[in-house]
Amino acid sequence: MNPFSLEGRTALVTGANTGIGQAIAVAMAQAGADVIASGRRDCDETLALMGSGRQMRLDFADPMAARDVFAGERIDILVNNAGIIRRDDAVDFSEADWDDVMDVNAKALFFTCQAFARAALPRGAGKIVNIASLLSFQGGIRVPSYTASKHGVAGLTKLMANEWAAKGLNVNAIAPGYIETNNTEALRADPDRSRAILERIPAGRWGKADDIGQTAVFLAAPASDYINGTVLNVDGGWLAR
Ligand code: NAP
Fold first, then answer.
1. What phi-psi label fits residue 19: left (phi over 0), alpha (psi between -120 and 50 degrees) or beta?
2. Residue with the nearest Cα to atom 9 of ligand 1?
3. What is the pLDDT of residue 33?
4. CA separation (Å) from 197 to 89, 166, 213?
5. Residue 134: which residues within 8 A CB-CB, separation 6 or more?
6. Which residue among 45, 161, 197, 215 is the one 20 to 30 A from 76 at the CA level?
7. Helix H segments across 132-224?
8. Domains of the chain, first to last
9. CA 35 to CA 213: how far, in whole Å?
10. 230 lines ligand 1 (CB under 6 A)
11. Quick one: DSSP state of residue 208?
């Protein structure tokens, strides 16, 4: 069997209606997976791009939203991609902007992994791919809850890998660099910030959502069976500078 194929696997991708999540869903479908595209709104566009698959409504404003998802059917691959960002000076940052971001990016991610693991551990096989960030390693500016949540994603990825690797579950993360999506629209709209970012990227371009999609396929495929607890930078070399 092709170790890079997802043939015969079912994958759930969160936040799959747009951006990086959509690209991951499409890349996994192209690699042969049966993809469940989940979103807090419809994923019709993603389904059309995949030409197959299903969709599921999950809104992580309730961090426990996925509690019953994995008991009903066999899902082999979980991609925790849903995420939000709020920007304000640290000195003004509100409790609501702290809680909303932490709930979606960190708390929901952990409890979705837990629900997945409860179903997958008895089978002794499963792959989790979490979407981290450069701000899993760097501080950033004016994004305190995002930085806290993404540092949390990196730590939780390692913790879960430590507990579950010997039981057949691979838990890893991808740290995307600067990718052209809604998430980075504000940065790209600011000419000074946009130029400063581009000048620092050794690859000389912003990332595309598909750059992350293809990496997610690798981390979900048998080819990466001996990779546990890693946070893989897909950043055009940003963190190498
Ligand atoms: P995006 O286009 O804003 O996509 C974010 C996704 O998360 C959307 O599908 C969004 O749904 C979903 N989402 C937000 N709140 C949700 C909730 N309460 N319940 C369920 N889904 C929710 O941004 P993106 O760049 O593709 O981001 C995807 C992931 O990559 C995020 O975790 C982000 O932090 C991470 N990331 C992105 C970059 C980058 O450069 N773009 C860099 C590092 C990390 P709606 O469309 O309904 O809002």
1. left
2. 15
3. 98
4. 20, 40, 22
5. 140, 175, 176, 177, 178, 233, 235, 238, 239
6. 45
7. 144-164, 185-189, 191-200, 209-220
8. 10-232 (3.40.50.720)
9. 13
10. no
11. -
CA dist., res. 94 & res. 114, Å (int): 29
Query: Which tens digit of pLDDT belongs to each residue from 1-18?
Result: 899 999 999 999 999 999
From ligand 1's centre to the CA of 20, what distance in Å? 7
User: Ligand 1 within 6 A of 61 CB?
Assistant: yes
pLDDT of residue 1: 86
187 touches ligand 1 (CB under 6 Å) = no
pLDDT at position 232: 98
Sheet holding 231-234, edge to edge: 54-57, 34-39, 10-13, 77-80, 126-131, 169-176, 231-234
Structural tokens at position 232: 């893989």
- Name the closest-CA residue to atom 7, ligand 1: 82
For ligand 1, is residue 133 a contact (CB within 6 Å)? Answer: yes
Q: How many CB atoms lie within 10 A of CB 42?
A: 12
